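Q: Given only this backbone (149 positions), what sequence would you predict?
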């Protein structure tokens, strides 16, 4: 009798293990339209950028209006060896741009910009730059997307 109970218990454990294994799927890493496998996607690159202590400090001081903010990511697949003075020996890098206008005025004004470069393979923050620049000198698209003029 005890042997039968033990056998039944082992059978239940095996059955539960088999059923559980069938229910658990291993997530595939994200891929581009060209089929390139990326270990880190654009959302993760944005999070890595925003979690950097220097970026968080810059944004807490200068970014006040989320409605005036534009966040853009670009996957750079053929990276020059040196980009903005930083050695980039990676094939796939996320360029993250987080921009916010300094006012909602009807003229070209200054914008605060965070630019970062994140390895799509390792998630490493390769380079970050924080700046205040004239909208005219940076990117007209930021103004158009915030519907200021």
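A: Predicted residues:
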């Amino acid at each position: 009798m005890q042997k039968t109970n033990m056998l039944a218990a082992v059978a239940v454990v095996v059955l539960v293990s088999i059923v559980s294994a069938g229910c658990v799927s291993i997530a595939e890493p994200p891929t581009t339209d060209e089929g390139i496998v990326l270990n880190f996607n654009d959302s993760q690159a944005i999070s890595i950028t925003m979690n950097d202590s220097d970026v968080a400090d810059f944004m807490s001081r200068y970014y006040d209006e989320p409605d005036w903010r534009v966040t853009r990511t670009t996957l750079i697949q053929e990276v020059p060896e040196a980009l903005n003075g930083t050695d980039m020996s990676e094939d796939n890098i996320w360029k993250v741009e987080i921009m916010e206008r300094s006012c909602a005025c009807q003229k070209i004004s200054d914008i605060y910009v965070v630019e970062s470069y994140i390895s799509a393979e390792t998630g490493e923050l390769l380079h970050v730059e924080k700046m205040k620049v004239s909208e005219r000198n940076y990117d007209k698209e930021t103004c158009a997307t915030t519907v200021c003029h």
